[in-house]
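Hey, resending since the last one bounced:
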Amino acid sequence: MTAGPPPADAEPTTPAAAPTVPWRHDLVGGLLAAALGAAVVLHVRTFPELPDGQPGPALFPGIVGGLLVVFGLVLAVRAVLTRGRAVQPGPGVTRQGVVRALAVVGLVVAYLLLAETLGFLITMGVLLFLLMWLLGARPLVAALAAAATTGLIVLLFQELLLVQLPSGLLGF
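The structure tokens again:
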């Protein structure tokens, strides 16, 4: 049996409405992130300050807390502005996404296990290259970006902030 055209007196079909943005989830999540960030910023004000204006232990937690406040508020404002609007749903969780997420976790664990033995430069350089390559960067781009990022981290932490990074068996 083949289906023919609909009868003349049939109701016209309309396309299904696109789903709306779950704006309440984004609003609540954004406000929670902003509140957490504000709590961090307030808490780090109790940390000790170092002499001579050097960055103290409150610097990076304060930056992260500030960023949580800013991006939490951006998410909350965006949620309010887009409430009720129709959007196309994303692809959802894909196999490739799961593999990439597990790779990131695996590379973090590998850093924790290898940094003391191989040293920061070798471990971070190789792991950053692998991460970028797994996320789709071309090998040459991944190698250059990994080298530049590793060098920038060494410059910032070891040279400017005087934080000792693992030197490993080879001494670098």
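Residues 95-118 form the longest helix (24 residues).

Sorry for the duplicate.
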